[in-house]
Amino acid sequence: MITQAIQLRIEISRIVEREIDRLKDQLASNVFEDVASFKYIMGQISAFRQMEDLIDEAAQKSDQRNR
Questions:
Q1: What is the pLDDT of residues 31-47, one digit of tens each?
Q2: Which of 12, 23, 49, 67 has the fewest C-beta atoms lying within 10 Å of its C-beta?
């Protein structure tokens, strides 16, 4: 049985992955005005990856608390 918390986590992960893919597509198209634009997109990708790690950590702590 999938709880609402698990469904939320799955949906957030899907949205984060979609956003990362969108940013990767921008990198692939290589339409940057300057290096700062490139670094900004790389920073966004890094932030979304970190967000995934934080979501996993929060889920683990929540699971431990609920046991």
A1: 778 888 889 999 999 99
A2: 67
